[in-house]
Structure formats: C-alpha cells, structure tokens
Design the sequence.
C-alpha cells in the first residue's frame, strides 16, 4: 500500500516522444508505483453538513496513512457545491445530473480549481456536453450533465459518440495516468423512467450497446463505468452481457469477497448508483466503502491497489487475422502458381520458412494501405517462447491547440506510433517555420529530424517505407539532413494523407472486430437457435430487356427493338409474369395469348405495393357497399374477408367480389381461400362455391375455430415445431441465464402465439415445461419443473405464468382500444352456462378460475383474496404483482401432495427469493436445487437407491434434513456457525427441506388496509383567492419491511394564500413515490377544474411535470399505451380537458433546496414552499392509524425473524456441503446443473475448486453436495 503523492503536473505526463527541451521540463514518463486507487460513485441532491458514519469492507476498514483516489457521481446540481466536492479528498470523482450549462460550466470549473488550490492540489475538471438552458433561466441548465475531476494526469478521450448521445450531456469518457498504469473512466447519467422517457429502458439499452462495443469489448485494462444509471444492476440486458465478459458491480464483488450485505444507494430503497469494474480492475479491488453523505443517494467507493498490478506480462502474441475479403485471391493464386521453396530437413525451420513465404506472397494483393500485410498481421510460426511485454499507456498525451489530433483516442499501437511520427513532423514544421537560428533551436531540429528517420512502427524503417509509397515520385526521397520549410511542409502533407488513410482503415477493421465480438456475446443464444441458412446459389441467370416497338393484335405478335437471341431453356417475362411464346422471327415475338392487357402495376415486394393494395381495398369496400350491402366486407392488405348471416347473400357477395377483381385483372387464389360456417347445414350449402370449407384454420399466425367444438390441432402443432430448437438449446454453450431469458422470447412466444383464443389442456403447458427443463439440463431426481421455472429469472420462463400473464395483459390492451368488446364481454358473461367455448371471453374465465379469481361484472373481478378490482384501471405493476402472487399460490397447491411440502400454504416471494440477486453462482445453484424439490437426504433417495439407508446410524430415526439440525454428527457444523437451532421444530417442513417460505399471513391485511383508503385528491380544505394561484405539490414514500408494508402520501399547498389545499395517504395497492407525486399534481388539477381558477403548479417530480406538460401541449395522450399509473394519468387528462387554455401551468422546482445557499428571494421562496409541501406529505405519511402501525410492526418482526433463520438454515446446508469429512457419504444433488456450467460433477471427497464468475447469479448453477449419513466418530 503506497501513499498518494502530490507531484507537479509535468511529473504525471503520459510517456511520449518528448524532445530534449520537453525532457528538461520533466514532461516525460515518471516510473511511479505503489499507489492505491479508490473509485467512488456518489449520488445525491443535497448534502448533509456532517459526513455520517458509513460501512467499510476489506482493506477499507484500515485505510492507513495514504489518500484514496475517489470516483463519484452526484445526482444533483454541482453549482455552489464545489467546495464540498473538493473536500471529499483527492482522486477521481464523477458527478451526474450537474445542471451545468455552457455558462455555469466555466464558473464551476474555476471554483473547483480554486478550492483545490487551497489544499495544495492541482485539480483537473472535465465536462460533458453542456446542459441546455431552462426555459425560465438565462444561466441554469436542465436536468442533465456529467463532470469528472481528477488529481492525476488526465485527459478527455476523443470518442465518436453518436451525436444525440453526446449532445444529451449524459456521457463522458476520461483517461487517467498514474505512473505506468492507465485508468479509463466512463461516466454516465441514465434516463429516468416515466412519461418524459416512456422508452427509457429501450434507449438505455441502446446507449449501453454503444458503451459495450467501445469500452467493454473494444478496450482492455483498468476500466470503470460508473454513475447514476436510474436502473438496478439486474434490470437491463446489457448488465448481464457485461457480467458474461467478466465485469462485475462493486457491491456484487464485495458480497463475494467480504460477505458484504447489499445496501441500497438511492433513497434507501434501490440501487441506482453503480460502479462496474473490468476484470483487470476487479482483480485489484481491495475494499468497498459506502457512506450516507448526501441526501437521497449514498456514496459507494472501491479501492484499487495498483501496487499489485503487474508492469510486465508474459504473452504469446498472435498475428492479426487477414481480412480475405480485401485480398485479390485470384491474382494471388496466379502469382503463387509458379512459387517454389526448398524443404528444410528441420521441421521447425521448414514451418518458419513456409509461414514467411506465405506472408510475403501476399504483398501487392491486399486491399489496405501499402497493399501489403501490416506488421501486426505477420509473424506466423516464429515464436518458440513467450514474449515479455512491458505495459505501456494505450494512448498518447492530449493534443494541444494547433496540433493535429486523432479521430478517436482508442486506437491500436500501430496507429499511435504513426500518430507520434505525424506529431514529430508537425513539430519540425513549426520549428523550421519559426526560423530561429540559435544553437538550442538548431540542435532541437537536428534531434527531432533524427528521431523522425529512426521512428518505429514502419517496416524496414521510415526511410524504406517512404520510398515505397505512391507519392515518392511527387515529393521525392526523404532528406538525409534537416530539410527546409517548403520541403518539410510537403513531407508533412504527404504523410498526413497516408496517416488518415491508415487511421480510417484501422478504425474500420477495429469496428468490424468489435461488432463481431459484441454480436457473439449478445446474439450467441439466438444464433444457436436459428435455423440453418438456406443453400447458396448454385446457378446464375442472365437476362436481357427489350422495348416493345409495335403490337399486331390479329397475329398476337409484338415487334421488339433488338434481335432475339434466346438461350436454351429461357423464359420470357412481362411485368414480372411468365409468358408462353409460340415462336420468334428476328425482332418479331409471337405469343399464344397477347400479354399486354396492362403495363402498369406493382410487383410483390415493391414498397408501393402495400399502399396500392390499400387503395384497391378502399375501392372494394365502396363497390361491395353498393352491390352486396347485406354482407360485411373486411380487408387487410391482400387478405379479404366477407361475413354474412345468410348463405345466399354471402354467395352473391362472392360473385360480386369476383367481378370486381376482374376489372383490375386480378384473380382469387383458390388454394389459399376458404369458407366456413358454424352449422353443418350451411357448410354443405357453401361447398358448391369451389372453396375449401373448414372448421378451423391458421390465420395471421393464430388458430381460429369456426364451430362450438374446441379444436386445437393447429395450435398444438406450433409446440411440436420446436423440436429442432430444443435440440439447439440443449447443445448451446450460452450461460444458463441467457437460456432462461430466451424461453419466453423465442419458445413461448412461438408455441403460445394466439393462445388467447384457444382452449387447450393444462397438459400441453406441462409438456412444454418438461421440454424446457430437459433442454436446459435441469432434470434432477425429485425436482419439480413447475417450481424450477417459476422461481427462475425471469418468472415468465415458466410457460404457465407466461401464458397467464400475456393473455390477461393482451386482453386488457385489446379491450382498451376496442370499447365494443366490453359490451360483448358482458353479454357473454350473462349467457355463460359453464360450457367450454373457443374464444377470448371463455379463455379469461378459465385463466381466472385457475388462480382463484372470478369475474363479477366485466371489467370487475374478484382476486384470490376476495378483493374486487377493475381490470382496466389496475396499474401495470399492481396487476403484475397480483398475477404473480396468485400464480405462486396456485403453484403451492400443485406441489402440496409432496410429503416435504404438505405445509406449503402459498409462497412468500420476498422471503423465498431472499438475497437472490446477491448470491454467488454456487449459492444460487444450491438454493435452486433445494427449492425445486430435488431429493437430498437418504430418507428420500433410499426409495430408488438400495445403497442408501433411510435410518440414521447414530440416532436410529429417519435420516431427513430436519434431523440433521439435531443430529450429534453435525455438532461441529452447528458450532462453526454458532447456532444450536433450538427453534428448528417451529419451522415448516417446506422451509427446512426446500427453503420455501409459506405466504405472509399479513398480506391479506395489508391489501385490505390499502384498498380501504379513500381517494382524497378531490377533497379540498381551502378555496382560491384572487389572481394567479401558485400551488406546490409533493409526495412522500416510506419503504417497508416487508415490501408490501411500504406506504406513500401526497400534499398540496397554496403559496399565494398560505393555506393547505389537501393532503392524504396514497390510496390503492400501488404504493410508490411516483404515484404519490402524481396524486399531489392530480389534486391540483381537480382543484383548478372545480373552482375554475388560474393556477401554476410547482412540483419537484420531473416525470410528473413533463407528463402534464405533454398533455397540455397535446404531444401525448393516455390512449397511446397503457403506461404505469395510467388510471391517474387518464383522470388528469380528462380533468385538463375541462380547464380553459392558459388557466393551468406546471413548472418543475428542485427538491430539498438549501435555503442558506439560495442566491435570490425567488429561490428562497421556491425552497420555502417546496419544503412546506414536503413536510406536510411526510407528516401525513407518518400519521398512520394504530391498526396499521401494529400490523406493520408485526410484519416487520416476522420478516426480520424469518430472514435471519433462512440465512442460518442456508448457511448450515452450505457448511455441511463444504465439509471434508472422509467418512461422510456424498450425495450428488444437481449433477446435471453442474455439468452444464462446470463440465464435471463435484464430489464430496474431491471437489473441484469453483470461483464466482460474477454476473447474474442465474448465469450458471453449481452442485450441492450434502452429507446424508453418519458414521460413528
């Protein structure tokens, strides 16, 4: 552990081609090792005056005398907080959502440097693109911006960001040089979810895709990606991709190494501020530090010990691959046809000579600068021992004003060598142009010209390379002595042109390779499941076009503009249609039928074919409305349907359609057309039409049934078609997490497409479930596929839950867009007699009954706990939670027949999935093996394995898992974990044997409490005064333990009159800060609409303000999609429609403004009334009834007790599994899961060492080895 040394700026400069003058100024490299580096991510809005006590892990518990290098991100304005930022200590810090515009960036940068100088520090701030100005300010920026500060030699990396991404002010990349070590830091501020960014997750994945390509797959070494992502470490798919590449988040790393307990970083509830470390950076991590320094967001830091980082490594360099697409293969083959070489008796020498001969033979045939292979592409069969490589910075120093700059800093070594040479030549041009003749200047130019001629990176030296270039004859040879200004300028221009060409080629090749690596990481599982590509073309067609000059109708002949020279087997076409030709004479072509009935149209595949067909459909509707008014005609591009209650009217409409199509020269495709009817008599009457009469058919991917019988043969075929994909999934090398992810995306989406209208047996889903478990390699003795997939991530990996969730969400979405369906649904329920009928209405009845729900009067239904809900108004998150909770209770009923699960009365998802996101791969594999019901003890395995004994040899009682906790043989285990397990008899068998926790007994009481709360947004305590009323709304949310105990509240105050308008607890099952903020704004809208007054609402919730502004401007409507809290947004939209234009305004105000730091009375006014609204919301949220407080206390006590005991039971099992007792038997519990992730099963006596591979814990599963029998000590 070294000390952080404060040195002058020049002593930290990146090694470069420095001149003698530069070296005298100490601008060269400084060999500096032993420094300890610490990154810190920091999110906040306002700071506390005193640093509160945090938690240190690893070596962070003993910081020592050295200073840490800190990387932090602050979720709040940086202006006027520069002193606090500097006071956090030297190192690297990043700040998110700085609100710094182009104006305040300058002042903030100066303030940062000034505060650092007071501590004898030289701070270097770097800014992202400035935030746009707010609409009501001429200096304050909007809610974006990223800043990075560093106490070390640093530079901002030149990266080809997408323009929209860079201009958003949400990204920044910097590089910091510490001795011989280069550290790249990417700072990011993620998009917040809400009406402002309805596609936040999609856009964030696009942003992370670019960062993944550039820094995860395109860059190596010490790299950190940090910031306020506005998403947890498991919410975005690219986080799993980073894990698969060896990256890990700071808290996950600390959990693995130091048993760190996961800590929320955002408002005490979620983890939004994250440090992602590359494998190299993670290997040097020695500690984690989390502190509550700022409001709302905690500070998280990691310490990297650079003294452990190697300065030299042994490598086996491999030549870069040859891009054969750029090689003139034909010319190269012709050149090699006459090549010969002697065979050396020494095979090693012969191989070396052959490889060199092969590489030299490509000279002149490669489509890249120089037409030869680059030096990095050579060297095959030359190396017989590893090379010792000294680690050097991967970039050079930043270009100064007036100096040439790289297009992108993250380039290869060869480009950097050329770029340094370009800088040397440019420096020489500047020096010779200055014309100074004193001795120092002359010596400088002589030394510089010598370094130019001796520059590395050019085959056989720079002079030889120069002579081989195309511009050699125009510019001339390279002078032996320092040239004059005119010649130096020509040399610079020529080499500059060659460098740019080489740089473009290098970046193109690098981007191609990075894209390949990225696609391999992201699309590997999908490529494994994809059908083989079709056979390649094995024949070529030649064609010739002719222009029709004249037509002779009586002889059915046409005159062409050129002589006819047809080839054998040729075919004639006109407007894409094949023609029958009777013969030809010179330019005369004779047809059996003259084809020129029309010379206009759009071939299939033409972009205009769809609008052309739409126009034709419109004409058909007009035509049929006149000639077949009793038939309902429907069209979808080239699909036409006609419905009628009478057969004869339908027959008349069919012939009318036939006549219409004849007008356009079109025909009905009889092979694809069909007719149907619901009765046998009418089906017989339709037969003479010549169309297929069907009872079920596949249409637009779905399965349609046209009779009262439930026909599912077509639907079931969809599942049968997955056999090849199951086989590909089985042999795929993708991690288990990706395989589970593609189950709903690929398999269930295909097998269950159109399931909303089909009635099929539960056995079909069970068959799909068993297929999935077998293909994933998760079949183990006693394991239940239903439990295994339901408790996996995602939960829709189980086909049953996927089927339930998607059918109900799709049905609700369709009903919201088609109001007539509600009327039809109600009519169906009035006439419903219990008979199975195909269609969505009975499907909903069937699905509801499966999970204990029932339909009252559509759209109202009763859930499994007896509470009534409106299907259309339930928020997305609430409906999702209700469905999953009901599904878990259904799963518990399905497995209660098992002896060890007889007391599983429902499933508590929070406790059953406890610590799931923070488990190591080994712990997760063991947990999932237990929870899916795998046989563990001899008591169960003896039923099918005669070698096992059901009775404990020490205690002479059944040798079950419950007995292990009291058996004397495991006294050492209980002693090791310091727990006697005296309470084990109180724990249900399902928990002791399978870690499955029965449902929370207080869940129903919490639901009853929240649903009984009244909506107080329409109750007002005061009336408006005269003039414009300034209103302040706010929300409050207290996270609960368990999560169902979390509560929210809202408030609304009138700053103009100084009165409270309203306040109340958040009603409904959905309790969140977003809903609380929206309720406060909704109360303001109702107040303005009720009193018809003019008001301006001030709210500190950005997504609420942006959503209301979008409604006011007409840029968004709630009918576009069912967004989160759509019930409240629909109320807001309806109320805003009743308010006259201009009577209601909405503005955003920062939350928790520090009154002392306000610079004007206006800011003080905002801070005062926002604090009043906030305090009112908090006080209302705290003023809960005695019944709730008692319920919350009992639920919290239960959650804490069960959490502690669950962790102890898990620890007991894991300690038993890790024991090395020789006489204990080994039970291979989940060998198939281990075989998939580790390649071979682990044994009790000789267990392979496993390491935490990082990433999503479901990425791989491991073996659980348990001691099941005992022998006498």
Sequence:
């Amino acid at each position: 552990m070294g000390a952080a040394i404060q040195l002058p700026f020049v002593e930290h400069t990146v090694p470069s081609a420095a001149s003698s003058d530069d070296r005298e100024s100490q601008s060269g490299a400084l060999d500096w090792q032993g420094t300890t580096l610490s990154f810190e991510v920091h999110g906040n809005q306002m700071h506390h005056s005193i640093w509160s006590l945090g938690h240190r892990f690893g070596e962070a518990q003993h910081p020592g005398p050295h200073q840490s290098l800190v990387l932090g991100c602050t979720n709040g304005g940086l202006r006027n907080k520069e002193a606090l930022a500097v006071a956090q200590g030297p190192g690297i810090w990043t700040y998110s959502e700085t609100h710094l515009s182009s104006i305040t960036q300058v002042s903030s940068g100066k303030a940062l440097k000034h505060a650092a100088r007071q501590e004898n520090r030289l701070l270097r701030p770097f800014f992202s693109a400035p935030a746009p100005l707010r609409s009501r300010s001429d200096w304050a920026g909007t809610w974006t911006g990223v800043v990075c500060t560093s106490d070390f030699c640093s530079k901002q990396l030149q990266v080809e960001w997408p323009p929209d991404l860079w201009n958003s002010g949400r990204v920044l990349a910097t590089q910091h040089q510490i001795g011989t070590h280069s550290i790249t830091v990417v700072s990011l501020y993620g998009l917040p979810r809400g009406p402002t960014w309805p596609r936040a997750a999609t856009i964030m994945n696009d942003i992370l895709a670019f960062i993944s390509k550039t820094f995860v797959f395109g860059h190596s070494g010490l790299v950190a990606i940090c910031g306020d992502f506005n998403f947890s470490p498991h919410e975005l798919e690219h986080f799993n991709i980073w894990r698969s590449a060896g990256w890990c988040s700071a808290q996950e790393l600390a959990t693995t190494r130091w048993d760190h307990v996961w800590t929320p970083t955002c408002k005490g509830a979620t983890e939004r501020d994250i440090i992602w470390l590359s494998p190299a950076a993670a290997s040097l991590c020695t500690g984690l530090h989390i502190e509550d320094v700022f409001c709302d967001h905690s500070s998280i830091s990691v310490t990297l010990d650079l003294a452990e980082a190697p300065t030299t490594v042994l490598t086996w360099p491999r030549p870069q691959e040859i891009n054969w697409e750029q090689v003139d293969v034909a010319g190269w083959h012709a050149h090699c046809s006459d090549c010969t070489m002697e065979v050396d008796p020494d095979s090693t020498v012969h191989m070396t000579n052959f490889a060199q001969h092969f590489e030299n033979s490509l000279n002149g045939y490669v489509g890249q600068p120089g037409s030869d292979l680059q030096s990095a592409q050579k060297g095959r069969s030359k190396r017989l021992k590893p090379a010792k490589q000294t680690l050097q910075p991967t970039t050079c120093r930043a270009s100064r004003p007036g100096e040439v700059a790289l297009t992108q800093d993250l380039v290869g070594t060869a480009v950097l060598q050329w770029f340094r040479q370009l800088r040397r030549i440019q420096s020489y041009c500047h020096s010779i142009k200055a014309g100074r003749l004193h001795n120092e200047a002359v010596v400088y130019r002589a030394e510089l010209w010598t370094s130019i001629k001796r520059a590395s990176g050019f085959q056989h030296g720079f002079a030889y390379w120069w002579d081989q270039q195309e511009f050699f004859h125009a510019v001339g040879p390279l002078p032996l002595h320092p040239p004059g200004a005119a010649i130096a300028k020509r040399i610079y221009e020529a080499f500059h042109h060659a460098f740019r060409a080489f740089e473009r080629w290098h970046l193109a090749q690098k981007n191609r390779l990075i894209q390949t690596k990225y696609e391999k990481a992201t699309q590997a599982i999908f490529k494994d499941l994809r059908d083989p590509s079709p056979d390649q073309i094995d024949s070529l067609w030649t064609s010739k076009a002719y222009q029709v000059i004249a037509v002779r109708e009586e002889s059915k002949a046409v005159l062409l503009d050129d002589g006819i020279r047809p080839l054998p087997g040729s075919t004639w076409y006109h407007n894409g249609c094949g023609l029958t030709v009777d013969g030809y004479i010179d330019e005369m072509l004779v047809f059996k039928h003259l084809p020129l009935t029309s010379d206009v149209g759009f071939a299939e595949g033409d972009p205009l074919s769809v609008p052309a067909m739409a126009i034709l459909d419109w004409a058909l509707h007009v035509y049929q409305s006149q000639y077949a008014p009793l038939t309902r005609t429907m069209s979808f591009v080239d699909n036409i349907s006609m419905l009628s209650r009478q057969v004869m009217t339908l027959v008349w409409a069919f012939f009318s359609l036939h006549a219409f199509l004849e007008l356009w020269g079109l025909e009905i495709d009889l092979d694809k057309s069909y007719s149907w009817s619901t009765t046998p008599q009418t089906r017989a009457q339709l037969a003479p039409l010549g169309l297929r009469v069907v009872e079920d058919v596949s249409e637009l991917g779905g399965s349609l049934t046209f009779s009262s019988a439930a026909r599912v043969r077509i639907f079931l075929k969809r599942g049968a078609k997955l056999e090849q994909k199951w086989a590909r999934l089985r042999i795929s090398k993708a991690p288990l997490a990706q395989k589970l992810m593609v189950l709903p995306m690929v398999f269930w989406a295909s097998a269950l497409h159109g399931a909303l209208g089909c009635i099929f047996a539960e056995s079909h889903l069970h068959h799909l479930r068993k297929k999935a478990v077998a293909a994933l390699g998760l079949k183990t003795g006693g394991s239940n596929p239903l439990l295994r997939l339901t408790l996996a991530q995602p939960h829709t990996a189980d086909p049953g839950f996927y089927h339930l969730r998607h059918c109900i969400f799709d049905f609700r979405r369709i009903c919201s867009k088609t109001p007539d369906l509600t009327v039809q649904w109600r009519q169906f329920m009035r006439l419903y007699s219990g008979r199975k009928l195909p269609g969505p209405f009975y499907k909903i009845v069937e699905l509801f009954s499966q999970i204990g729900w029932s339909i009252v009067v559509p759209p109202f239904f009763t859930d499994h706990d007896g509470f009534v809900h409106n299907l259309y108004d339930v928020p997305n998150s609430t409906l999702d939670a209700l469905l999953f909770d009901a599904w878990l209770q259904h799963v518990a009923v399905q497995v209660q027949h098992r002896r060890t699960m007889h007391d599983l009365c429902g499933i508590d998802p929070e406790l059953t999935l406890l610590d799931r996101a923070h488990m190591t791969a080994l712990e997760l594999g063991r947990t999932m093996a237990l929870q899916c019901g795998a046989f563990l003890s001899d008591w169960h395995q003896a039923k099918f394995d005669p070698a096992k004994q059901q009775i404990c040899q020490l205690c002479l009682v059944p040798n079950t898992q419950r007995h292990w906790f009291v058996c004397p043989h495991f006294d050492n285990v209980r002693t090791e974990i310091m727990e006697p397990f005296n309470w084990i008899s109180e724990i249900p068998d399902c928990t002791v044997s399978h870690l499955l926790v029965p449902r929370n007994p207080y869940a129903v009481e919490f639901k009853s409490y929240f649903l009984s709360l009244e909506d107080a947004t329409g109750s007002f305590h005061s009336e408006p005064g005269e003039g414009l009323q300034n209103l302040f709304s706010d929300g409050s949310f207290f996270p609960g333990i368990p999560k169902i105990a979390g509560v929210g509240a809202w408030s609304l105050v009138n700053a103009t009159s100084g009165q409270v308008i309203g306040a109340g607890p958040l009603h409904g099952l959905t309790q969140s800060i977003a809903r609380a903020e929206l309720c406060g704004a909704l109360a303001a809208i109702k107040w303005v609409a009720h009193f018809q007054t003019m008001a301006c609402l001030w709210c500190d919730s950005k997504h609420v303000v942006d959503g209301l502004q979008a409604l006011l401007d007409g840029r968004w409507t709630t009918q576009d999609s069912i967004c989160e809290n759509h019930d409240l947004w629909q109320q807001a939209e309806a109320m805003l429609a009743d308010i006259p234009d201009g009577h209601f305004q909405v503005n955003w105000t920062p939350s928790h403004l520090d009154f002392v730091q306000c610079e004007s009375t206006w800011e003080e006014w905002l801070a005062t009334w926002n604090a009043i609204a906030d305090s009112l919301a908090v006080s209302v949220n705290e003023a809960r009834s005695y019944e709730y407080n008692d319920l919350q206390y009992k639920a919290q006590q239960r959650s804490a007790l069960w959490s502690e005991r669950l962790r102890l039971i898990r620890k007991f099992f894991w300690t038993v599994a890790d024991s090395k007792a020789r006489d204990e038997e080994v039970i291979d519990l989940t060998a198939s899961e281990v075989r998939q992730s580790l390649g071979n099963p682990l044994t009790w006596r000789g267990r392979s060492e496993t390491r935490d591979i990082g990433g999503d814990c479901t990425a791989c599963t491991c073996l659980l080895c348990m001691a099941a029998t005992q022998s006498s000590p």
Notes: The chain has 40 helices and 37 strands. Confidence is low (pLDDT under 50) at residues 1-38, 40-68, 594-600, 1220-1273. The CA atoms of residues 351 and 381 lie 6 Å apart.
